[in-house]
From TrEMBL, chain A:
Belongs to the ABC transporter superfamily. Keywords: ATP-binding, Nucleotide-binding, Transport. InterPro entries: AAA+_ATPase, ABC_transporter-like_ATP-bd, MacB-like_ATP-bd, P-loop_NTPase. SMART domains: AAA. Residues 7-247 form the ABC transporter domain. This is ABC transporter ATP-binding protein. GO terms for molecular function: ATP binding. It comes from Levilactobacillus lanxiensis. SUPFAM superfamilies: P-loop containing nucleoside triphosphate hydrolases.
Automatic annotation (TrEMBL), chain B:
Its main location: membrane. InterPro entries: ABC-4_Integral_Memb_Prot, ABC3_permease_C, ABC_permease_BceB-typ. Keywords: Cell membrane, Membrane, Transmembrane, Transmembrane helix, Transport. PANTHER family: ABC TRANSPORTER PERMEASE, ABC TRANSPORTER PERMEASE-RELATED-RELATED. It is a multi-pass membrane protein. The chain crosses the membrane at residues 17-35, 55-82, 103-126, 146-173, 201-218, 224-244, 283-304, 482-504, 535-557, 569-594. This is FtsX-like permease family protein. Belongs to the ABC-4 integral membrane protein family.
Length: 252, 604
């Protein structure tokens, strides 16, 4: 493992069901790495194992076999509080359904990861306002999630995901519940964050448009990595065509 | 077909329905227990020392009905929130509003009737058990008290079924007027209460004013008579509600802007409380009232229980007098914790009882001082010289009673040892015993008194000794003591099911929120602490308010518990036991909540 690798997955397997029951293997020996500062997409049809993979990476689920190393931590060896702390400090999440706490204001939602760390309130305020500027939600901070549109909610969720400068930002279909304008805005923001803050981003999606913002795309099929596509110097719309072509052949 | 679907929906949410049914059943059972006492005129007439007990029960019933109405409203909204998604789905699939309305109506009514029926059976069993247990524990005999009392069964049945019919109608109207879309997306929407400082100030001041008026009404019960109770009930209920409404929200708002709110899950806790404060104020008001009534009733009950022996002890000079004690009686006397014991030889001749002066000098008869202060604690025991005793002490009622028979039937006469030896007559040895603590020796004293009265039947209401004084007082106040304990336990159970309900009905929403926190990386221990704090606050606020209510409300019993009794005497231990029970109840609720709400880590 080189120092600039932020995620390293080797021989990852996940089997559901107990030994004496009917078993289903969702992941069959996955291997890949994500370099620091990279913007990687994971694509695949429904049931291909995308979400299972993300759950392994984010420690919400444990693998049956294999290793997952995130920012130098072997997450398969962690237990209890270590897992919680890992999620709180090393990873930022954006979910399809936002996962904002409706009883807290946008500001309080964003501040949550810092509060968990016990950050002094002045430092916290500063960090919240910085990230709010970046995501242009400074004027929304006092509002409750119910008062925000879907796009605004997802930007607040993104702010919460990066406010504590995690090693990697993981998104699970973050544009899934957004209209096309909001989706494009969010993806542009993720690109900006990735470029300016050198934050690694891992995006799980089945939407080719979202995927076209990535630098590299891994295609998963039946629990294995089927192929890989690099953007290189192509512009986004060319890459988008490339992805569509790949999907066309990949799914056959 | 739709009926089948509805049934399948219920099956899927078995646990929720079980909670709902259990809560309603408990409520009906408790109402029956109360109605059993309140409507039993024969029991009240025979056992309540005061005629106003009847009226107190009347107000108690009104209050309980109000609480029941609110309780059923809660239960109903819980039911509706569980079902509206399903019903929305049925409508989306093409079921007519009329058909769905019928289903809602039937479901509510069936559930309610079932709960009432089970509740009545449970109430009967609980009454039987509790009545037996309490009477046994308190050593009371109350006439006309039965577990099965038909008018109470009718009253409970009519009230509950009536309320459920209303609830069904309400559900019917509500569901048929809401749009399908709203039904489908009925998940909790944030309703953030708006803060209007001036209005809150007014509410707060008004609340405190009403509370003060209520406390004053209870304290001034002598002047206001029975009017004090309805005044107190209305003003304290409203006052508590307004005060909670005004202050809780303000405190939360203020705390939210502090640095404390930005540490760990504190902000989330405040957000949670703020989010639900409107629902909570009503619930907290009811719980604080129930808490106050449960604690107050038990305090009064235990006050009588503890203080009746204390008071009896202060009346006469000896606890029991035994004439020509048998071996069995001696055995019982040996079990007592004796503070003073004397044995005198009597010789009875005609209408005179002769005593030996040398015996009276050796162990002088104890006498009780009379005090004008009205405080029985000032009436100390003393002895006097034989010469003095011949003039004054000899006419002491307790001493006269040693002769047995009607007071004044025998005249005591003291002879010198020589004269006494010559005096002819029936010889009777009388032993007087004064115990250290009447309460402590009650069982042995009871047996001793039984043996003694069996051998020497006493005419009329003549009492000999403090033990008999105690029995007489028990006959007079025992009914109140029993009612106090009984109601206390009933209210405590009601409080328990009320809080439980409210808290559990919030659990599904919390499940989602804690799942989110879990994903974001909140430690399990932090979530546990957060829940413990949140539920702790929900228990603490009504607890504090309830204790304050009781401290003021006990004033009401001052006329009934005159010196040396006092409604405030020794309440510390009662409070401690009660708070202990409340704390145990908190821990149970907390454990339940943890189990429902906390997400399981994959490794566990």
């Amino acid at each position: 493992m080189t120092t600039n690798t932020v995620v390293s997955v080797s021989g990852l397997e996940k089997t559901y069901g107990k030994a004496n029951e009917r078993q289903y293997t969702a992941l069959k020996g996955l291997n890949f790495t994500v370099d620091s500062g990279e913007f990687v997409g994971i694509m695949g049809a429904s049931g291909s194992g995308k979400t299972t993979l993300l759950n392994m990476l984010s420690t919400l689920d444990t693998p049956t076999k294999g290793d997952v190393v995130v920012n130098g931590h072997d997450v398969t060896k962690m237990r209890g509080n270590q897992l919680a702390d890992f999620r709180a400090q090393e990873v930022g999440f954006i979910f399809q359904d936002f996962n904002l706490l409706e009883s807290l204001t946008a500001e309080e939602n964003i501040g949550l990861p810092l509060a968990l760390k016990g950050t002094p309130s002045k430092v916290m305020d500063q960090a919240i306002h910085e990230v709010a500027e970046t995501l242009s939600i400074a004027d929304l901070l006092q509002k409750y999630p119910a008062e925000l549109s879907g796009g605004q909610k997802q930007r607040v969720a993104a702010a919460r995901a990066i406010v504590h400068h995690p090693a990697i930002l993981m998104g699970d279909e973050p544009t899934g519940a957004l209209d096309s304008t909001s989706a494009r805005e969010l993806l542009d923001l993720l690109t900006t964050i990735n470029e300016q803050q050198k934050m690694s981003v891992l995006l799980v999606t089945h939407d080719p448009f979202s995927a076209s913002f990535c630098q590299r795309i891994l295609f998963i099929k039946d629990g294995q990595i089927g192929s890989e596509l690099r953007r290189g110097d192509q512009d986004r719309s060319t890459f988008y065509q490339g992805i569509l072509n790949e999907l066309g052949t990949f799914n056959e | 077909m739709l009926g089948k679907l509805a049934l399948a929906g219920i099956k899927n949410r078995r646990r929720d329905y079980l909670v709902l049914l259990a809560g309603l059943t408990m409520s009906a059972a408790i109402f029956y227990m109360f109605a059993n006492l309140a409507t039993n005129q024969a029991f009240l007439k025979a056992n309540a020392a005061i005629s106003s007990a009847n009226v107190i029960f009347g107000f108690g019933a009104v209050l309980l009905i109000l609480i029941t109405v609110v309780y059923i409203m809660y239960a109903n909204s819980f039911l509706l929130s569980m079902r509206q998604h399903d019903y929305g789905l049925f409508m989306m699939l093409g079921a007519t509003r009329k058909r769905v309305g019928e289903l809602v109506f039937l479901e509510t009514l069936i559930l309610g009737t079932l709960a009432t029926a089970i509740g009545l059976v449970l109430g009967l069993l609980m009454s039987k058990f509790l009545v037996g247990f309490l009477l046994n524990m308190l050593g009371l005999h109350l006439s006309h008290l039965t577990a099965v009392y038909v008018p109470a069964i009718v009253a409970t049945g009519v009230l509950y079924v009536g309320l459920f019919i209303l609830a069904s109608l309400f559900n019917l109207i509500k569901l048929t007027r809401t749009t399908v879309l709203k039904l489908l997306h009925s998940d909790e929407l944030a309703n953030q209460p708006k803060v209007k400082p001036l209005r809150q100030m007014v509410q707060g001041v008004l609340g405190i004013g009403l509370l003060a008026a209520g406390y004053w009404a209870l304290a001034d019960i002598k002047a206001l008579q029975l009017l004090a109770i309805p005044i107190g009930l209305v003003t304290i209920t409203l006052g508590t509600y307004l005060l909670f409404r005004a202050t809780i929200l303000m405190v939360i708002r203020a705390l939210r802007h502090t640095g404390w709110a930005k540490k760990h899950l504190n902000g989330f806790l405040l957000g949670q409380l703020n989010f639900r404060v409107h629902n909570y104020t009503r619930m907290l008001t009811i719980v604080s009232l129930l808490f106050a009534m449960a604690l107050g009733a038990i305090t009064v009950g235990s006050g009588y229980h503890r203080q009746l022996p204390m008071m009896a002890e202060k009346i006469g000079t000896y606890t029991v007098a035994v004439h020509d004690k048998t071996a069995r009686e001696q055995k019982l006397i040996d079990q007592l914790h004796i503070a003073h014991q004397a044995t005198y030889t009597q010789k009875r001749q005609g209408k005179t009882v002769y005593y030996n002066a040398s015996e009276l000098t050796a162990t002088p008869v104890e006498l009780r001082a009379h005090s004008n202060s009205g405080n029985m604690n000032d009436q100390k025991l003393y002895t006097e010289s034989l010469t003095k005793f011949k003039k004054s002490g000899i006419s002491d009622l307790d001493f006269l009673s040693l002769a047995l028979g009607k007071v004044g039937a025998y005249a005591p006469k003291i002879l010198t040892a020589k004269q006494f030896a010559k005096q002819s007559g029936t010889v009777v040895m009388v032993t007087t015993v004064r115990v250290k603590n009447l309460q402590q020796d009650l069982p042995a004293l009871k047996k001793l008194n039984k043996l003694e009265t069996a051998r020497f039947s006493q005419p009329g209401t003549m009492t000999v000794g403090n033990y008999q004084n105690y029995e007489m007082m028990l006959a007079f106040f025992g009914g109140l003591e029993f009612i106090g304990y009984f109601l206390g336990i009933a209210f405590l159970a009601m409080l328990a099911s009320c809080l439980m309900f409210k808290i559990l009905s919030g659990a599904p929403g919390d499940q989602r929120r804690y799942r989110m926190l879990y994903k974001v990386g909140v430690r399990q221990s932090l979530m546990r602490h957060g829940i413990a704090k949140e539920i702790g606050i929900l228990f603490l606020i009504p607890g504090i308010m309830g204790v304050i209510d009781v401290l003021f409300g006990l004033q009401m019993f001052k006329p009934l518990m005159a010196a040396p009794m006092s409604p405030y005497l020794g309440i510390g231990s009662t409070f401690l036991i009660f708070i202990g029970l409340y704390a145990i109840y908190y821990l149970i609720t907390l454990a339940l909540y943890w189990r429902i709400v906390l997400p399981q880590a994959p490794n566990d």
